[in-house]
Amino acid sequence: MAPLTIVLRDLKRMGRNPVRTLLLFAMPLMMAGIFALVFGGGGASEISIRVLVFDEDQGLISRFLGGAGSSPEMDQRLELVPVGIEGYEMMENGEASAMLHFPEGFVQAYLDGASVEVSILKNPAERFLPQVIEEGTQIGAEILSQGSRVFRTELETVGSLTRSEGFPSDLAVGSVASGVNQKLRSLERWVFPPIINLETMTVTPEITEEHESDGNGILGFFLPGFSVMGILFLAQSASRDILHDREKGLIRHLLTGPVSPGEYVFGKCLSVLVVSTIGFVFLVAIGIAAGINWGSVSTTLALVVTTSLAVAGALVLLCSLVGTERQADALSTIVIMVWCLIGGAFMPVSQFPDFLRPLAKSTPVFWAIDGFQKTMQNGAGLAIISTNLLVLAAVGMVFLSLGAFVLRRRMAGGLI
Amino acid sequence: MANLWKIAVHDLRVTLKDRSAVLWMLLFPVVFATFFGLVMGGGTASTPVDGTVSLSVVDLDGSIMSSALIDHLKDDRLDLVLLSPSQERPADTVRTLVIPEGFERMAVAGEQTTLVLEKEPDTSAEAALVAQARIVRSATRLIGGLIMEEVSGSVDATADSEPLVTVNTSWAGSRQGPPSGFSQSVPGNATMFVLLITLTYGAASVSGERQSGVLRRLVTSPVSRWEIVGGKILGRFVISGLQVTALVGVAAIARFWVNIDLGGNLFGVWAVLLVYGACVAPLGVALGAWFVDQERAANIGTMMTMAMAAFGGCWWPLEIVSGTLQTIAMAFPTTWAMRALHGLISFGHGWDAISPSLGVLVLFGLAFTTLAVRSLRVE
Question: Which of A35, A127, A237 to probe the B interface (max B CBs under 10 A)?
C-alpha cells in the first residue's frame, strides 16, 4: 500500500501545480505546432519566389515572362520584377532569390540559330529557392534549344523579317504561320500532352491493405519525436523529486514510519512510470484532437507503455547515480538532449551522416520514434514493431531495476 | 557605475557556479552546432548546392530509348546508381527513377508513358525537387530527339549536340555558394543559445531574487533602483558576452580541423552577436520581473526562445516559409541578428551594409530596456 500511497501523493502534488505540469507538455506541442505551421500544406503553398529580370534585349522574352508571371496561378508563387543595371545592387542586398539576365541581342541571335546564354545571379543567403529558379531556367533553356532545332526554318525566316525594314508581307507571315502550324500538327502526338510524363510518389515499406494513406502531414511526422522529448523532461522532473525529497529531509521522516526503503524506492519508481505514461497518453490525446492518426489502439498503447517504461527507467537510473538535485538536473539534461539529437527527434535519422546512423540505434528515443512512424505511416501491427517494443521494454526493465538497486543501496548506506 | 558592475559581476559569478547554466551556455551550443553542421554538410544525402544529386534508376524496359534516357540523365549532374529490376534496393536509397516496361513501345506508338520517381518519406525535399527538374530536362531532350527524327526522317545527331541556349550561374556577394554545414549551423545556434540563456537562467535568477527578497534587501543598501535595474541588465549582457566570446573562440579554433567558413570575418560575427546579446539582455530581466516562480519564468523563456528561433530563421532559412510568416518574423530580434550575420557570412558585406539590421536590433534593445525598467519592482 505504501508504494501506491507514494504514487498518489506525487500525482496530487503535480495536480496542485497544474501550470508547472502543463508547461512541460506545452513545449513538445508548441514545437510540433511550429513545424506544422511552417511546413504544413497551407504554409508551403504560400511560398513566393521573387525573381529580378534584367532584360537588356527588351524583346519578346521579357514580355513573355511578364505574361507568364502575371497569370492567376503564378501570381501567388512567382514574383517577376523587371529591373535594370540596379538589379545587381539589389541582389547584393539580398532583395530577391535570383536575377535573370538576358543580354542585348538575345532574341535576334536565337532566331538566327546562334548560341545564346542566359545568366542567373543567385542569392547566397538562400539555399532552396535559387536552386528552384536555376532548375526551372535550365528546363526552359532545354525547351528553347529543342524548339530552335525543330522550327529552325521558321525561326530564321522570322529573324530575317525582323531585320528588314517596314512591315513583312502577308505571304511571308503566312508562310511562317503555315510552317509552324504544319509542324505542330505533326508533333501533336509528342508534345500535346508530352509523350513522357513524370509522376512522383513517396514509398513506404510494409504497406498494409487495412491502413489508409497517411493523412497526418508534417505534424504527424514530427509529433512522435517531440512527444518522446517531452516525456523525457516530464520523467526528469518526476525523478528529480527523489533527490528533492532527500534534500528536504522527507525521506528521513518517511523512514521513521512504517515504510521500508524498498517500498519507498518501489513507490518512487512506480510514480515516475505512472507520470510518464499519463503524460504520454495526454500528448496522444492532444494529437488525436488535432487530427493525428496514431495507428491502431493496441500498437499505440503498447508503444506508449514501453516508451514510458524506458524513459522512466533511464531517468531513475540517472538520478540514482548523483547526490544532489542540481547534479541530477545537469546530468539528465545532457543525456536527454544527446539522445534526442542522435535519436532522430529533431531530424530524420536517414539524413544523418553514415557514421552517426548506427549511434541512433543506441538510444531508446530512436526505437520509440521508429515504432511510432511505422504505426502511423505504415499501419504496422504489433508483430512488425515487436523489436521496437522488446528493446524499449528491455531497456526500461534493466534501467529501472538498476536504478532501484542503486537507490536502495544508497538509502541503506545513509547516502540518500 | 561601480555598483552596476558589482551587481553584474555578482550575477556572472552566481551563473557560472550553476553547472546546468554552464552546460547550456557553452557545451550545448557547440554540441548542437556540431550535430547540425555534420548533418547539413557531412551527410550522405546529396547536397544540390554543389551540383550533384544522387538517383537510383531501375530500367524495366531495357530498350534503346530507355538507355538513351539514362545517358541524358548521366549528362545532367545526376549521380546515377543503376539497379537491375530484380535487385533489392540498397538501404541508403533515397530516390529511385523507375522506367516502366513498354517505355519505348508506347512512346513510338504515340501513347503517353509515365516515369515514376519513388522517394523515401524522409528524403531531402530540396534534392528531390532538383532530381525531378533534371529528369524533366532529360526527358525533354529525349522528346526533342524523337521529334527531330520525325521531322527530318532520320535519327538526328543534333539531339546529342551542345544546347543552343545555355545557362550561366553565379552567386551574388563575394561567397561562392550559400553557407552549408558548420557555416550554416554556427550562426543559427549561437543566436538561439544566447537568447535561451538570457530568457531562462537570466529570467529565473531575477525571478528568484525577487522571490527570496534579495532585491528588496539591495534597495536598503546605498544602491539606487536604477543601479539595480541597470546592474541586472548589464549582468545579463556580461553573461551573453562571455558566451558569445567562448563560442566564437571555439569556432575560430575548430576552423583548423573542420570547414567552418564564417565569411572570413570572425570579429564581425563576434561583434554582431555581442550587439544582439546586449539588445535581448533587458528582455530577460523583464521576463524575470513578470513571473515570481523561477521554474515558470524559465519555462516561458524556453518557449519564447524556441518560437523566436524558429520564426527568426535560426533553424531553417526564411526563404522556405510563407510570405505571411516572413512578415511576422520581422517582429523578432532573432530575424535581424540572422540578417546581419547572413550579410557578413553569405555576402561578405561590410558594416555599412549590415548597419540597418544592427539599428533595428538597437531599437529592440531600447524597447526591451523600457519594458524591464517599468516591470522590475524592487521595493
Answer: A127
Q: Do B346 and A204 touch (CB under 8 A)?
A: no
CB contacts < 8 A, A to B, total 308
Has the ipTM of the complex gone over 0.90?
A: no
Q: Which residues of B touch A52 (CB under 8 A)?
A: none
Contact A341 B32 (CB under 8 A): yes
What is the side-by-side strand order in the sheet with A49-55?
A78-82, A49-55, A98-102, A116-122, B165-171
SS3 A382: coil
Length of chain A: 416
- Strand B95-99 and strand B113-119: the pairing is antiparallel
Write out pLDDT tens, residues A20-44. Answer: 778 777 888 888 888 878 776 554 4
C-beta atoms of B177 and A146 within 8 A: no
The answer to whether the CB atoms of A148 and B164 lie below 8 A apart is yes
State the nearest Cα–Cα gap between B366 and chain A, in angstroms. 26
Cβ distance A332 to A238 under 8 Å?
Answer: no
Q: What is the C-alpha to C-alpha distance for residues B358 and B364, in angstroms, rounded to an integer?
A: 10
Q: Regarding beta strands B53-59 and B95-99, do their DSSP bridges make them parallel or antiparallel, or are they unpaired?
A: parallel
A27 in contact with B, Cβ within 8 Å: yes
DSSP structure class, residue A125:
T
Please name the residue that has the C-alpha cell 504489433.
Answer: A382
Residues from chain B contacting residue A146 (CB–CB below 8 Å)? 140-141, 143-144, 147
Q: Which of A44, A149, A341 sits opposite B148 (nearest CB)?
A: A149
Q: Cell for B185?
A: 549551423
Per-residue pLDDT at A64 exceeds 80: no
pLDDT of residue B47: 45
The grid coordinates listed for A85 are: 543595371
Interchain proximity B165–A148, CB inside 8 Å = yes
User: Which of these, B281, B153, B134, lies nearest to B206 by C-alpha position?
Assistant: B281
Q: Is A23 on the interface with B (CB under 8 A)?
A: yes
Angle at B120 between CA B114 and CA B121, to 5 degrees: 115
The mean-pLDDT minimum among A389-393, B168-172, B318-322 falls in: B318-322
Q: State how far the alpha carbon of A334 is from the alpha carbons of A236, A273, A337, B105, B300, in Å.
A: 11, 21, 5, 60, 21
Q: Are A54 and A85 in contact (CB under 8 A)?
A: yes
Q: What is the mean pLDDT of residues B10-29?
A: 88
> What gap in Å lies between CA A29 and CA B5, rounded to an integer?
40
C-alpha cell at A91: 541582389
Rounded distance, CA A318 to CA A239, Å?
A: 9
What's the rounded Cα separation, in Å, for the pair A81 and A98?
A: 11
Dihedral angle over CA of A214, A217, A223, A226, nearest 10: 130
* CA dihedral sign, ordered A206, A212, A216, A217: positive
Q: What is the pLDDT of residues B233-264, one digit of tens each?
A: 999 999 999 999 999 998 888 878 777 777 77
- A204-216 residue pLDDT tens: 654 444 444 455 6
What digits encode the pLDDT tens for the residues A5-21? 888 888 888 888 787 77
Distances in whole angstroms, Cα of residue B62 to Cα of each of A134, B97, B102, B108, B166? 32, 14, 9, 15, 31
Using CA atoms, how far residue B225 sits from A411, B5, B202, B377, in Å, is 48, 14, 18, 9
